[in-house]
Amino acid sequence: MKGVFYMKRLSAALFCLFLTGAYGAHWNKDTYVIWSLKKQAPHQAAVVSWSDWLVFGNAVSGKPGVRFILNTMAASGIREVWWRTFGGGNTLYSSKVPEVTNGNYAGQGADYSRYDSLADAVEYAHKLGIKISAWYTPLEEAHGWPDNVRSRYVDLHKDLWDRNVAGLPAEAPSFYYKQYRDYKLALAKEMLHNYDIDGMVIDFERGGSPGRNDLWGYLLPMIKDFNRKYNRSGRPASDDPVWQAYRAENLGKFMRGVKDLAKSRKRPAELTAIFKAGEDLSAHCDIAGWNREKMLDRIGIIKHGKGWGKPATNLASLQNQYRHKYQLPTSMIFYSLNGSKTEIQTCLDKAVAGKVKNIIWFETTYLYFRELYALPTAAACPEKLTLKSPVYDLRKGGEIYVVAAGSWTLKIAGKTVAAGKADIPAMVKVPAQASRISLEFICSLPKDSTKAGIAVQGKIGSTAIQSDATWKSSQGEVVTLAQPGVPPFLAPLDEAVTGGVK
Length: 502
Fold this sequence. Notes:
31% of the residues lie in helices and 25% in strands. By secondary structure, the protein is α/β, with parallel strands linked by helices.
């Protein structure tokens, strides 16, 4: 049976190669896959851990892999990316900050000191019209457990270690120390000033392991200063809100520095804070205080469903609660890790019906390898629409190439000229017309489609025609959904990721 499976995959790959051999040369860097978004559809963003794509899915490393991931999301209608920049305390981009640990995962071919995934992701996302922010996890110095992707900084600076409620070393530095805050700010400055990111997402949900939590932050000088300031004595209770706010001020100093860095750029960056629903205040996080100081532009709320990693069903009520509480744009993080397709679909339907404005898919790895990309596609992209090109002089007719993710019909002046099926490229002779007129494509997506889009290229008379966002849609906004060049649903992986823009 395994042999039959691989033969089927080989046959499919050869078929794709046949298509790209026949038609691939016609697609150049000026051709985009375009589609329209549904009116009133939620804005969809996605978290991207490129390292996870490499570990769990054997994705291609380097620039081809980055482009493949972004193409996959773009073709499903996802319009924003939170690009992971740290795994534990190790960078997932090429950092030059002294004492930093650049990630190096030889088994996946990813040495971040040599390959800058963030630089390629920013450049390519912007070519696709996708907004991209750096996802920064400043509390992590290890990921999952202390010896898993552990930052070198931890062992180089044991003198900066925090203390837990029992007074024991807590295996990670404390933000109480200016030296440590400055180190973390240097990393933030590097990302904000060296990369054309649209924003920075600072994640206070991920604390590393054994985990920065309310049982941490018990440095002796902090306790003494707190007791003196508030006329207290003894060891403060870990859940005392006054003590929580006092400890969170150490992160507040860091946050003010990040805000200043974001404002000092030529193009200011949006600043988002992620935290768990119901945990607005902790030893490391004071959302209300930071909001009063206008440090935040947006918040991202994490709420697990029944069991870790499953989507929550009450995203709409949580969104409304937090938007009312802080008067800030609120993004609801939608977990797809452990929920079944039916469960995720039910939660998504409730979120859309409840008018959730911003959905963050976490995590794109699982969307792809569990074949769930039809869910964001259906939420973003209409099943049927009409796309109209700019006006062209059709007196000499023309010849165009067309390929789409769904079936399509081409009409000119109300008359059907050509039609095609999903994923099958076609060469169309455009008949001469007596006047200047638009091309009109009526398009339909198949059920459970994982992608949307149509690409058109060729000439009308002597005028080159390319599909881009200057077209008009019956649904409203037309967007660029996938890479310029070879449409990703036409070409196999090796062709799709190297076609178009170099």
